[in-house]
Amino acid sequence: MTEIFESTGQALLYGVVGLVVMAVGFIALDLVTPGKLYHVVWTDRNRGAAVLLGSQSVAVGLVVMKAIAASESEQGIGYGLISTLLYGLAGVMVMTVVGIVIGVFAQGQMGAVVLDDQDGRPHPAAWVQAGMYLGTGLMVGAAIS
Q1: Which residues pair with 121 in a beta bridge?
Q2: What is the DSSP string of 40-90?
Q3: Are 37 and 104 in contact (CB under 8 A)?
Q4: What are phi and psi of 67, to 5 degrees?
Q5: Which of 24, 42, 73, 84 is spaced 20 to 30 A from 64 at the CA atom?
Q6: b/e map 40-56, b = 16+ CB within 10 Å
Q7: Residues 36, 30: contact at Cβ < 8 Å?
Q8: At what angle do helices 47-70 and 77-105 cross, to 10 degrees?
Q9: Which tens digits make up the pLDDT trace of 13-29?
């Protein structure tokens, strides 16, 4: 029974670390897109922004999942939590750089283009950038394992 409580506590701690990484990912995406991301998604109901945020959240979740799996160590839970946090933040950093690089090569300001919903549909660039976030999450996750 003690093992169940210990495992539950560890799951909660990893959940907190994952939440921190997701929050940093949200802030990073907010910095590279025009407007306040919370307002753009929840108030303006911008589908392009929702596509980006959703894909980034899945990608960050994939990185954190692989980081947790790789953190199994005889060095203890502290080591596992720190390695998960660092790997997760590295994934967010790589995704943010990918978004910036896409913006450099895309015509116009990428964030503005991606958030350009027409006829209630996200701009195709939103789907491209979403795919890039997911692909980046998979690559970083693979590098961790």
Answers
A1: 118
A2: IIIIS--HHHHHHHHHHHHHHHHHHHHHHHHT--TT-HHHHHHHHHHHHHH
A3: no
A4: -65, -40
A5: 42
A6: bbeeeebbbbbbbbebb
A7: yes
A8: 140
A9: 999 999 999 999 999 99
Strand ranges, E, within the chain: none
Could you tell me which of 97, 95, 71 has the C-alpha nearest to residue 17?
Answer: 71
Query: In angstroms, rounded to a whole number, what is the distance separating the alpha carbons of residues 143 and 138?
Result: 9
| Cα distance between residue 145 and residue 126, in whole Å | 29
Could you tell me if 20 and 85 are in contact, meaning their C-beta atoms sit under 8 angstroms apart?
Answer: yes
Kindly report, residue by residue over 34-90, the tens digit of the pLDDT: 889 999 999 999 999 999 999 999 999 999 999 988 887 677 889 999 999 999 999
Structure tokens at 28: 């990073």
Q: What is the pLDDT of residue 108?
A: 61
Report which of 63, 64, 57 is spatially closest to residue 29, judged by C-alpha positions: 57
- Find out whether 91 and 140 touch, Cβ atoms under 8 Å: yes
Identify whether the C-beta of residue 38 lies closer than 8 Å to the C-beta of residue 81. no
